[in-house]
Structures are given as C-alpha cells and as structure tokens.
Design goal:
By secondary structure, the chain is an alpha+beta fold. It has helices spanning about 50-65, 105, 120, 140-145, 155, 195-210, 230-235, 250, 330-345, 360-375, 390-400, 430-440, 445-455, 460-470; strands spanning about 15, 45, 75-80, 110-115, 150-155, 165-170, 180, 255, 305, 310, 310-315, 325, 355, 420-425, 475, 485, 495. It folds into two domains: about 15-185, no CATH class; about 225-360 and about 415-495, no CATH class. The termini are far apart.
Length: about 500
C-alpha cells in the first residue's frame, strides 16, 4: 500500500491505448466513480496536470476494472468541497433544479450537497482509517467536480467543512454519482420555536409552588383600545370556558370520521401519499414526511382517482355564507367537529368555513392584494425586489405566495392542497383588525393580527378548538387563530374510534 501522506493523484491511475477516443461529454459532475457510463482500459499511466480532461477520463476509465469489488452502497467519505451558497435563497451551483437527481431539491425544498471523496472507491481500497484528508489539497476544482454529489438538508450541509468524515449512501447501486448523508447531526438543524400555552402555564404553576415568594404567573394579556363588539359578536364571544378533555394525542385516538386513505391521490407534482403529520402541525409546517410526493403540494381542482375527484364542493351545512370547494377528506371530520361543538353548547355559525381550497392563481392574486393594500408593497418595484423585501416578509407571514422564489415557484400550502380551512370564531378577523387599526392609528396590519390572536386566546371558541380539533384531525397555524388544517397524525399507534361524541 502506498504511503498515506502521498498527494492525490498517484500512479494508481490508469489510461487507455487510443487517446483519440476521448469524449468530453463523459465528463459530468459526479462521474469520478467506479460504476459510471464509461468503459475501462487497462494500461497504467500518471496524472498529467497539463491535460486535466484526458487525465480525468483516464481516472474514470481506469477505475471501471476495479468496480467488481464494490459490494455495498454505504461508505465513509471525506468532504472535498462544499459549494453551498451563503444566501439561502440562491440556487446551488452546477445543479439545475428542474433536472436535479435530488427529488426534494427539485421540488423546492431547502437542500444542498457536498462533493465527497471516498477512499475505498477512489484510492483502490484505501480505508478511511489510513486516509489523510490533506491528500485532497492538491485536487483542482475540475477534478473535484467529478466526485459524487452527496445531499442532505441545507442547514446540515452548510456546516460541513472540507476534510470532514461522514457516512454516505448511494441510493441507486448502479449510479455512484448521487447519494445522501446517512449520519445527520441533529444539533446543527434549526429548532422550530413553538409556544405551548398549557405547558408554559404548568411550568409557571410548578415554579410558584417551589418558590411562594416568586412573581405569580401573569394573567392572560388584554388588548388595549380593542374595538367594540357588535351584538351578535358579543353573544358568540362571551360564552363560558369550554369543558377540558384529555389530549387526543395522549390517548392515541381519532374520531371515526377520520379517513386518511382519502388523502392519497394525484397532484400536478406527482402522486401524493401523505396521510398525516407525525403529530406536529399543519400541512405546510409539519415535520412529518410523505410516503411519496412532495411535502408541500397543490391541487388544480380537477384531479381524480378511482374513487372520484379529490377537490369537491363542500356541503352547505359546513360553509359560512358562500359556496366553497375543498379536499374530499375534510368533509366528514368537519361535520363531526361541528356536531360535537353544538353538543357542547357552541352555537351556529361558530366553526363554519369561510375559505378553503384556492388554486394557484387565486392564491397569488390574494397575496398581491394584501401585499399592496395592507403591507406597504411598492408597485413601482417588482414584488421580489430588494426595495419590497420588508413588505414581502411581513405579508408572507400571514399570506401564502405560491411563487415564492425561495422555493422554486409554484409550491403548495394548506389552502392550495384543499386541506386548509378558515373557521368563523365569532367575529370576522379582517373586520376586527380594521376596526382595531382605526382605534389605534398607525398600527401595522401585522400588529393588528397579533392583537387579534391575543384577543382570541381568552375566548371560548378558540379555546374549544385548541382542546378538541386534533381529535378530528385538524391542526392550527399558530399565527392565525382562524386557520386550521386537516392533517391527521400518521403514526401507526393512532387509531380511529367509533365515537359520535368525545368522551
């Protein structure tokens, strides 16, 4: 075996007899591997730094003869180069999203890759234990670009530095140009900040018991200069607190109206088989993974399978003042949830739906309306320009934009999937916010929505949903009390129960 301190490359490199047969088309990113679309020759040669193209082809072809020893798809690799751009909104170099082998990147997810040097493949059975990463110092960029691309979540990959050893796996045993990281250090992934009202309240009570002299937990926040309520609003927003119940998650139960099989079907971005969220929120926020298809997808409205259309007209008894369309899977859980609410004393029209499915065009038109009329967007500049960046960021928090450039365009969300429902909670949030801004001149739109959330925290309608909605498969988008998404938990221990009312 050669001295591990030797520099790359060394006389292990082989060549062919006829240099006239060299084809540049065989040199593509990731082609430096033992099983590629080229055919090998057997003569020994040295690397010629003055003819990188010829030498690169020699390397590839020479390794073909040794490819029979490859009996696994899992290896320890060394990061040779990390091309992850500093700006998370920039596309990756040397990787067209439309034809990328990494499906998640192709579908707009936050992904990145590293060029990985694998001693067992690229140095003829050299093991990682005997490999010195400094051997990569002499590799030029032209050679590095011929190494395999190994993919992972962007927030993980961006932390990797050249010389790092990681476990990698090639998902296709016939294609050693593309692979994925198998050891992902969760500590470098961002943690989602969530606010659990019950958990924080319990923590405050526990602290107070340990230290009687400590400051007591503050009372629910009040909204100064809140708008006066109309008589019908006063009636619906002055109901007594709802009955508390054990968490449906802790009981691993669903109402019998939940039919996760109805969520499976076609979409413009491929067949979707994502029947839940792993118990972690709405469709667009969830940490759950689909069995097939993209995490965020949309429906045009005419998709159908053997059992009928995925998007259907919702029955009038669940709609609030208008005819709406939504995903077929939403109907029965909505009807069951309304029946339970009425049994618990929450009268009509609480929890009826005033907005559900929107196609891509409707969603973008709605986004533009709010962007220009409520969030200060400047029409003299493009929506995605630097001059509109602040307005875009504020509007995007409360309004989905299917053409958001960060995700490659035409991404879906709760409403575009037909599973997001805006529920009437006793007052129109848009009207309430407009009246609040009138009472508090100069208040931005986003701030008025935050005040509406604070206002609703103490109301029985919102509290009832936080206690009961998950039992019917609905999760809340935390910034918007009215926005809920049908996204039932797909963990196997969750089971449907034949109950007409929640115990």
């Amino acid at each position: 075996m050669s001295d591990p301190k030797e520099k790359f490359p060394q006389p292990h490199i082989q060549t062919f007899d006829d240099p006239n047969n060299i084809t540049v088309s065989e040199l593509v990113p990731g082609v430096l591997n033992p099983i590629g679309p080229v055919h090998g020759h057997n003569n020994i040669a040295r690397w010629d730094s003055n003819d990188i193209i010829t030498s690169s082809i020699n390397v590839v072809r020479g390794m073909i003869d040794d490819s029979q020893r490859i009996t696994t798809t899992k290896f320890t690799g060394v990061v040779a180069s990390n091309p992850t751009p500093a700006n998370e909104h920039d596309d990756l170099p040397d990787e067209l999203r439309e034809i990328s082998k990494d499906i998640e990147y192709k579908l707009g997810h936050a992904r990145s890759y590293c060029y990985i040097y694998i001693p067992e493949i690229h140095m003829y059975n050299r093991t990682p234990d005997t490999f010195d990463p400094s051997q990569l110092d002499d590799m030029d960029m032209a050679s590095i670009r011929l190494l395999p691309k190994i993919w992972g979540p962007r927030d993980f990959v961006k932390e990797l530095t050249p010389g790092s050893f990681l476990e990698v796996e090639f998902t296709n045993p016939k294609d050693f140009t593309y692979g994925k990281f198998t050891t992902i250090n969760k500590s470098v992934l961002p943690r989602k900040k969530t606010f659990d009202f019950k958990r924080n309240k319990a923590r405050d009570v526990k602290k107070a018991a340990k230290n009687p002299n400590a400051k007591k937990a503050s009372a629910p926040a009040t909204v100064r200069n809140a708008p006066d309520l109309k008589p019908n609003e006063e009636k619906l927003l002055s109901l007594p607190p709802p009955k508390d119940r054990p968490s449906p998650k802790s009981r691993n139960l669903y109402h019998s109206s939940v039919n996760k099989a109805l969520l499976i079907g076609p979409s413009p971005r491929g067949h979707i088989d994502w029947t839940g969220c792993g118990g972690r929120g709405t469709l667009s926020m969830s940490g759950g993974k689909p069995k097939s298809g993209p995490k965020k997808y949309y429906l045009k409205g005419d998709e159908s399978d053997a059992s009928g259309n995925l998007i259907i007209t919702l029955p009038s008894e669940v709609c609030y003042g208008r005819i709406l369309k939504g995903h077929r899977a939403v109907v029965e859980p909505l009807k069951a949830m309304l029946a339970q609410a009425r049994a618990d004393g929450l009268p009509d029209p609480l929890f009826k739906v005033y907005s559900c499915w929107r196609d891509v065009k409707q969603q973008h038109e709605g986004f533009k309306y709010w962007f220009y009329s409520k969030y200060g967007g400047k029409k003299e500049f493009p929506i995605y320009s630097r001059q509109n960046a602040a307005a875009y960021r504020k509007c995007r928090k409360y309004n989905g934009d299917p053409f958001d450039p960060r995700h490659g365009g035409k991404i879906g969300g709760d409403h575009m999937a037909g599973r997001g429902v805006d529920l009437f909670l006793g007052t129109s949030q848009s009207s309430w916010c407009a009246r609040y801004q009138k009472n508090n001149p100069g208040t931005p739109r986003g701030k008025s929505i935050e005040m509406f959330k604070t206002f609703m925290e103490s109301k029985a309608s919102y509290q009832w949903l936080k206690i009961n909605a998950e039992f019917f498969g609905f999760y809340n988008y935390p910034a918007e009390p009215w926005h809920w998404c049908y996204n039932p938990d797909d963990r196997p221990e969750r089971s449907d129960v034949p109950l007409e009312v929640i115990p």
